[in-house]
Design a protein that fits this description.
It comes from Terasakiella brassicae. Keywords: ATP-binding, Nucleotide-binding, Transport. InterPro entries: AAA+_ATPase (IPR003593), ABC_AA/LPS_Transport (IPR051120), ABC_transporter-like_ATP-bd (IPR003439), BCA_ABC_TP_C (IPR032823), P-loop_NTPase (IPR027417). The protein has 11 helices and 10 strands. By secondary structure, the protein is α/β, with parallel strands linked by helices. The chain folds into 2 domains: 173 residues, P-loop containing nucleotide triphosphate hydrolases (Rossmann fold, 3-Layer(aba) Sandwich), CATH 3.40.50.300; 73 residues, no CATH class. A 6-stranded mixed β-sheet has the order 6-7-8-3-9-10, with helices on both faces. A 4-stranded antiparallel β-sheet has the order 2-1-4-5, with helices on one face. β7, α7 and β8 form a beta-alpha-beta unit. The C terminus is likely disordered.
């Protein structure tokens, strides 16, 4: 989906410290509604720390974060989820003892309106009807992600690639306006990566979700992203279209480990 001019997320000059360690330094960027925006950088660059600030797991010491025009810097993750922000994690965070369907249903709990009392009179109140509605939504997501064959399987018994897909399903179950994906393709084989990339693009283009993705596979990032931001040592060192990022000499040195012509000539002379 082509990014519109209205930012759904505005990150302004945020800094994050852990004791004397500065994880993020004055990072600013906007993500437009409907955009597929990727964040790349070397290990330890601060990518997950940045996503944790956006989702509310961390609170930056300086700066502000606005989501859909609302200040959310000090807001809890639950409140941000209620506003329409979902995420997956770098390390799987599924309920391993629960079925795939039940894990996805957990992702819809913010959308459930019935309270304890109505649950207690389940067969006479609206709780049964509501549960059926949420189950239909969960089944739609299961069909979309092509995991019908494992819908009743216990999550902890699945392969790593399938568990990553189930975690995506649980995040999608919230029907978020903005979904944060932390290395959704880590540990996957080529076929699994191709499937996951297709699902992410479809979520963006067909389901209308704005996507912020951290990913190390540069081929995938450059193929599906509309814009890319590069972090290095907690700082935003570049931001732009994929081809602009690929041709940025500073990015090549910091992220891709390439030398510029002057460095190469100097190396040749030393040799």
């Amino acid at each position: 989906m082509t990014g519109q001019t209205t930012p759904i997320l505005e990150v302004d000059d945020i800094s994050l410290r852990f004791g004397g360690v500065r994880a993020l330094s004055n990072v600013s960027f906007n993500v437009n509604k409907g955009e597929l925006f990727s964040i790349i950088g070397p290990n330890g660059a601060g990518k997950t720390s940045l996503l944790n600030c956006v989702s509310g797991r961390y609170s930056p010491q300086e700066g502000s974060i606005k989501f859909k025009g609302q200040e959310v810097t000090k807001m809890t993750p639950n409140h941000r989820a209620e506003l329409g922000m979902g995420r997956t994690f770098q390390n799987l965070a599924l309920f391993a003892h629960m079925s795939v369907l039940d894990n996805i249903m957990v992702g819809r709990h913010h959308l459930m309106k019935n309270n304890f009392l109505s649950g207690g009179i389940y067969w006479f109140g609206g709780a049964q009807k509501e549960e059926l509605i949420h189950r239909r939504e969960a089944e739609d997501i299961i069909d979309f992600l092509e995991i019908s064959h494992i819908r009743k399987s216990v999550a902890g018994t699945l392969s790593y690639g399938l568990r990553k897909r189930v975690e995506l399903a649980r995040a999608v179950a919230l029907r978020p306006d903005l979904i944060l994906l932390d290395e959704p393709m880590a540990g996957m084989n080529l076929e699994e990566k191709e499937d996951m990339a297709r699902y992410i693009v479809d979520l963006n283009e067909e389901w209308g979700m704005t996507v912020i993705m951290i990913e190390h596979d540069m081929g995938v990032v450059m193929d599906i992203s509309e814009r890319v931001m590069v972090l290095d040592f907690g700082k935003n060192i570049a931001e732009g279209l994929p081809h602009e990022i690929m041709s940025n000499d500073y990015v090549k040195r910091a992220y891709l480990g390439e030398e510029d012509d002057a460095d190469e000539n100097a190396s040749d002379e030393v040799a």
